[in-house]
Design a protein that fits this description.
It contains 15 helices and 13 strands. By secondary structure, the chain is α/β, with parallel strands linked by helices. Strand 8, helix 8 and strand 9 form a beta-alpha-beta unit. It is a peripheral membrane protein.
Length: 370
């Protein structure tokens, strides 16, 4: 009958899992927001770690959140590894129970050690599966899961080589709705040049030390520059004091909650090269000087940064090869070169994928139909 033919499909039930850093959570939240925007009746459940920061961030989104006992395996000392392996059966049971109760149409993993047991339980229960890989070099959990999931969404094209042929699709890395809205607005002009320093969601002491030394060596060179510096909790006070003593205009905070507003003030960014930060910078078209975290697993932050550097959107420096004097020289040179900043901005924007969340939602629907 015609009425039955035109009946709408039931709303999607999506289970998202991942966590451990803001870089894992933000894309998951962006995907959930995109799904709800298109399907207000859709049902969403997050399964995350028991870390306080994860729970607090997810609970602020208003989505349903549950946790399981889970610990990482890679790079752990023997006692920690034994503990993590001993907890695995409990992790699988807890994940399976939550999956049975929620009845998802599709399960999506976004990275972090909690992803492993949740997707393993979903596979045992024959739920449709996909994963989203944010970095150029996949983590251990995603490499293993790539063999059994239905689809693999990629943020960067070079990570394709780590997964089975035919399963991958380049979607980009979803960014928060507030960031997308900021990207559509014209950036304010006038006033002093503004330099934004980011060390990741937890801050980065080596970056804090390097940047403050570079900018305060000859503070008169930066008299016309305003500094916005995200320090992490431990370094806020001494960083602020360095700028105050040097007479440099600055705004210092351990963490900026309203990042869209913060980004909108920046002319140049000094940052680590976590996947989510890079996705945000590219969507916004912000030129960057990148200092990858040197101890990231498989050196993935350097590989992430190199993609943007090779394509003209950023300068990339190894932390151990960047003295403070050279950093100061590079910053001054860029801030004084408006055409170069404009070229880098345009290159960054070409690398950004603003509809990454919508692409992943479309893949969720595709996988669910199977």
């Amino acid at each position: 009958m015609k009425g039955l033919e035109t009946a709408q499909k039931p709303p999607l039930r999506l289970l998202l899992t991942g966590g451990g850093t803001g870089g894992h959570l933000f894309p998951a939240v962006a995907t959930a927001e995109s799904l709800i925007a298109g399907e207000p009746e859709a049902a969403i459940l997050f399964i995350g770690t028991r870390r306080r920061l994860d729970r607090e961030h997810l609970e602020r989104t208003g989505f349903a959140v549950q946790t399981i006992a889970s610990y990482g395996l890679k790079g752990k000392r023997l006692p920690e590894l034994v503990k993590a392996l001993a907890v695995l059966p409990l992790s699988l049971f807890q994940a399976g129970w939550r999956i049975v109760r929620f009845r998802p149409d599709v399960v999506c993993g976004v990275g972090g050690y909690v992803t492993g047991p949740v997707l393993a339980a979903a596979w045992l229960l024959r739920r449709p599966l996909l994963i989203h890989e944010q970095n150029s070099v996949p983590g251990l959990a995603n490499r293993l899961l790539g063999r059994v999931v239905d689809r693999i969404c990629l943020s960067l094209p070079e990570s394709e080589t780590y997964f089975p042929a035919g399963k991958t699709v380049l979607t980009g890395n979803p960014v928060r709705r507030s960031i997308l809205e900021a990207a559509r607005r014209a950036r304010p002009r006038g006033g002093p040049r503004t330099l934004l320093i980011l060390g990741g969601s937890q801050g980065a002491r080596p970056v804090n030390k390097l940047v403050t030394e570079a900018l305060t060596r000859n503070p008169e060179d930066f008299s016309g520059v305003h500094i916005i510096h995200q320090t992490g909790t431990a370094d806020e006070h001494w960083v602020a004091e360095c700028y105050r003593t040097a007479g440099i205009s600055s705004t210092v905070a351990p963490f900026f909650t309203h990042m869209a507003d913060t980004y909108s003030q920046a002319d140049l960014v000094i940052s680590r090269s976590g996947a989510t930060t890079l996705a945000e910078l590219s969507v916004l078209g912000l030129p960057a000087l990148l200092i990858p975290y040197p101890h990231a697993a498989d050196d993935h932050q350097f590989r992430n940064a190199r993609w943007y550097g090779d394509n003209g959107g950023a300068l990339v420096f190894r932390q151990e090869e960047l003295p403070a004097a050279e950093l100061a020289r590079q910053v001054l040179r860029l801030l004084a070169d408006e055409p170069r900043l404009r070229q880098m901005s345009e290159a960054m924007r070409r690398l950004g994928i603003a509809d990454a969340a919508e692409r992943i939602v479309a893949i969720c629907h595709e996988v669910a139909k199977r």
